[in-house]
């Protein structure tokens, strides 16, 4: 059975950038979810692969450049998601950034950028889906 290509099954993307066990999060400057912290990301443009969109969105929102990303998971938001209510299901592909360079600055629709470790995130409004991904990846830091 053929697998459906990722590009056919996602509406948007986010990019997980990690440095020194801290995760790059942006404060959303616009609705939906204005004020919440999330991974840099957004909608795909026409003709763009999800991987290309993740690299572009990371750069547009933070100034960070990446050469490659690796697919992690897909999160679906709908009307019942409190931090990102969507009138119809919105599928967001989450990618881990490889080989990032540059200093993070808030740009595009990001109001601010933060490098946070998992234990620091409780002081902020961070989306549940971000906390799930961060918890999974932070667990790898402590694995032998």
TrEMBL record:
<dbReference type="GO" id="GO:0016787">
    <property type="term" value="F:hydrolase activity"/>
</dbReference>
<dbReference type="InterPro" id="IPR020084">
    <property type="entry name" value="NUDIX_hydrolase_CS"/>
</dbReference>
<feature type="domain" description="Nudix hydrolase">
    <location>
        <begin position="8"/>
        <end position="138"/>
    </location>
</feature>
<dbReference type="InterPro" id="IPR000086">
    <property type="entry name" value="NUDIX_hydrolase_dom"/>
</dbReference>
<dbReference type="InterPro" id="IPR015797">
    <property type="entry name" value="NUDIX_hydrolase-like_dom_sf"/>
</dbReference>
<dbReference type="Pfam" id="PF00293">
    <property type="entry name" value="NUDIX"/>
</dbReference>
<comment type="similarity">
    <text>Belongs to the Nudix hydrolase family.</text>
</comment>
<protein>
    <submittedName>
        <fullName>DNA mismatch repair protein MutT</fullName>
    </submittedName>
</protein>
<keyword id="KW-0378">Hydrolase</keyword>
<dbReference type="InterPro" id="IPR020476">
    <property type="entry name" value="Nudix_hydrolase"/>
</dbReference>
